[in-house]
Amino acid sequence: MSDQIDKINFLNLKSCDSEEVVSRTGCEFDKTSGQYIVKVWGNNYCVDLNKYEVWPERSGLKTYHEYLYLFILYYLMKSKNILPSGEWVSEKDIPDGAAFFRGPHTIPTDLITGRFGDDIDLFKKESEKLKGIAIELADAAYIFQITPTLPVAVLYWQGDEDFPSEAKLLFDRTIEQHLPLDIIYALAVEICHALGQSLF
Fold first, then answer.
1. Is there a single domain that holds both residue 94 and residue 164?
2. 95 and 32 in one domain?
3. Residues whose CB is less than 8 angstroms from the CB of residue 154 and which lie 6 or more positions away in sequence, other chains included
């Protein structure tokens, strides 16, 4: 079983109607093996309901503390088949987000600025390696299509003599309909580590 993920999450997913899960998310399900195959951030992941495990189909693909796997389980269980609104919001704009996303739940964007510093060209290069789509925000910004219904934008401001470099994550307004705050945080941590440490 995945070390960081409670078995109850797999049991809860197992209790879901697999046809409904497939219809909502566009994933695949093999009834014989009890495995879902779901595409997240351009990579296929297998969710095995019998072994209580999640793993990437591509060898060598890394994650941080299995936060991405926890996100995948909740995405399969809870996400809705609704299109993104196109309205970007910060974590503080999500209902109850201002109280939640602080202290231990502060999104670790310092991992991103700690890697790139004032090298905005390197930020662009690495964002494009991670399948980012450039948009006209900040000094540089990229949308990462985590799933068809869950885009996340990473914005970057290059530092100068007066201000250090800054990074920020934005979410589509509809994310509050898909995921609880702790799972949004888990996804945000994964994104920060993927950019900050080039995990992919």
1. yes
2. no
3. 112, 127, 132, 141, 142, 144, 167, 168, 169, 170, 191, 195
Contact indicator for 53, 2 with CB cutoff of 8 Å: yes
Can you list the residues of the chain whose pLDDT is less than 70?
1-4, 198-200
- On whether both 72 and 123 belong to a single domain, the answer is no
> Is 2 among the domain residues?
no
In a domain, 1, yes or no: no
- On whether both 97 and 55 belong to a single domain, the answer is no
Residue 191 belongs to domain spanning: 88-197
Q: Token pair 């609880």 is at which residue? A: 180
The mean predicted confidence, pLDDT, of the chain is: 93
Whole-angstrom distance, CA of residue 123 vs CA of residue 194 = 12
Q: Which residue type sits at 151?
A: P
Q: Using a cut of 0.85, tell me whether the model's pTM lies above it.
A: yes
Alpha carbon of residue 192 to chain centroid: 9
Place of tokens 């809705």: 80
Please enumerate in sequence order all residues whose Cβ is within 8 A of that of 186, keeping only pairs 6 or more positions apart, or say none. 67, 68, 70, 71
Mind giving me the DSSP string for 143-177? EEEEETTEEEEEEEE---SSS--EEEEEEETTHHH
pLDDT in tens, 38-54: 999 999 999 999 999 99
**CATH code: domain of residue 175:** 3.30.310
